């Protein structure tokens, strides 16, 4: 249910509605808009008796939200969500580019990458300190030491840090080190983890589960929003299909319906989506043409010797060539 306030509703009237919703045992989510405030209501398992709210001063109308995801839906929130960080914005008309190695491997390579990205105007660095690997014998990431390295990279360069949170045990440490907390494809439906990041003070980058439908993905976003963290960025990274010419099947066809159904920003990761570095540039450009708000791309100073995902990582010259094309295309969109 969405309560739309009149454009001239006073703060006292808005507070009264918030209180009334709490008195009904439900959770209000105030959403101030350019012309008026709307208040989303969640927590109801049955139907809400809307008459108690309709009669309150300043209330214009009550709208039933038909989708199972409420706060994530455009029915509830008409305007695009734009996430503002000191390093830049994600969503709306801006183009966000997040780049960096799959994993933090050591301090020297990470600093070198962060410094080089900053000289190219990239303000967000991706790199995992905790890595979800298929094999328990593969490099698992540097863990807490990796977070320290990320912290130093931010201190030295000012770059924003995007890093993955894998479990609730390490949530405090990752939340502290990250500017954006990444939830990986394997954890998209890890509901205790989603509840934990719903209480985080940092935006959440929610990768699509590798076999998740659009509705399941938005329901996972709803977990984060419903806990009070309204800053969620969706990231398409490919889904599992019968195709074996690529690591995953990058589902760019999900972008238009996501933008229609939800106000949340959506970015695309063509690195995990293709698994092959030569396929990253065309799919990155295709993602922008399809309406993505940004890209997440794996870039490594020496991809052939990377400890993870080297085959899909671009080297610096390759990334620079792609960046020129991306910026050129963005100007014409
Ligand atoms: C990653 O971004 O390095 C990663 C592990 O991604 P995904 O969860 O999409 O596999
Ligand atoms: Mn990777």
Please supply descriptive tags for the structure shown above.
single chain, binds phosphoenolpyruvate, elongated, 8-stranded parallel β-barrel, 2 domains, 4-stranded antiparallel β-sheet, alpha/beta, 333 residues, 11 helices, Alpha-Beta Plaits, 14 strands, binds manganese (II) ion, TIM Barrel
Provide structural commentary.
The chain is of the alpha/beta class and 333 residues long. It has two domains: 2-63, Phospho-2-dehydro-3-deoxyheptonate aldolase, domain 1 (Alpha-Beta Plaits, 2-Layer Sandwich), CATH 3.30.70.1140; 83-332, TIM Barrel (Alpha-Beta Barrel). 33% of the residues lie in helices and 18% in strands. It has helices spanning 11-23, 51-54, 107-119, 144-157, 171-177, 191-197, 214-226, 255-261, 270-274, 280-289, 316-331, and strands spanning 2-5, 27-32, 37-42, 59-63, 83-85, 88-90, 96-100, 124-126, 160-164, 180-183, 204-207, 232-236, 266-268, 294-298. It has an eight-stranded parallel β-barrel with strand order 7-8-9-10-11-12-13-14, surrounded by six helices. A four-stranded antiparallel β-sheet has the order 2-3-1-4, with helices on one face. Helix 6 (191-197) crosses helix 7 (214-226). Bound molecules: phosphoenolpyruvate and manganese (II) ion. Phosphoenolpyruvate (PEP) binds at residues 102, 128, 132, 184-185, 207, 237, 272.
């Amino acid at each position: 249910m969405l309560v739309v306030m009149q454009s001239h509703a006073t703060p006292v009237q808005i507070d009264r509605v918030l209180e009334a919703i709490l008195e009904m045992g439900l959770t209000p989510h105030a959403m101030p808009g350019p012309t008026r405030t709307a208040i989303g209501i969640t927590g109801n398992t049955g139907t809400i008796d809307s008459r108690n709210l309709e009669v309150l001063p300043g209330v214009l109308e009550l709208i039933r939200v038909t989708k199972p995801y409420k706060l994530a839906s455009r029915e509830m929130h008409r305007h695009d969500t734009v996430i503002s960080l000191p390093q830049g914005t994600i969503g709306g008309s801006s183009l966000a580019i997040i780049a960096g190695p799959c994993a933090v491997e050591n301090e020297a390579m990470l600093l070198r990458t962060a410094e080089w990205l900053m000289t190219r105007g990239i303000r967000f660095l991706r790199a995992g300190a905790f890595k979800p690997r298929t094999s328990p014998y593969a490099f698992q990431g540097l863990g807490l030491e990796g977070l320290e390295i990320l912290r130093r990279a931010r201190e030295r360069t000012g770059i924003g840090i995007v890093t993955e949170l894998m479990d609730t045990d390490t949530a405090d440490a990752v939340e502290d080190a990250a500017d954006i907390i990444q939830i990986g494809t394997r954890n998209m439906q890890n509901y205790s983890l989603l509840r934990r990041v719903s209480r985080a003070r940092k935006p959440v980058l929610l990768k699509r589960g590798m076999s998740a439908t659009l509705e399941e993905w938005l329901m996972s976003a709803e977990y984060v929003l419903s806990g009070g963290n309204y800053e969620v960025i969706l990231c398409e990274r490919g889904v599992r299909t019968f195709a074996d010419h690529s690591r995953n099947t990058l589902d760019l066809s999900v972008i238009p319906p996501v933008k229609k159904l939800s106000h949340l920003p959506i970015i695309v990761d063509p690195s995990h989506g293709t698994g092959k570095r030569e396929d990253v540039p065309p799919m990155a450009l295709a993602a922008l043409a399809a309406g993505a708000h940004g890209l997440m791309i794996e870039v490594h100073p020496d991809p052939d010797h990377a400890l993870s995902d080297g085959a899909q990582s671009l080297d610096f010259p390759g990334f620079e060539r792609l960046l020129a094309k991306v910026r050129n295309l963005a100007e014409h969109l």
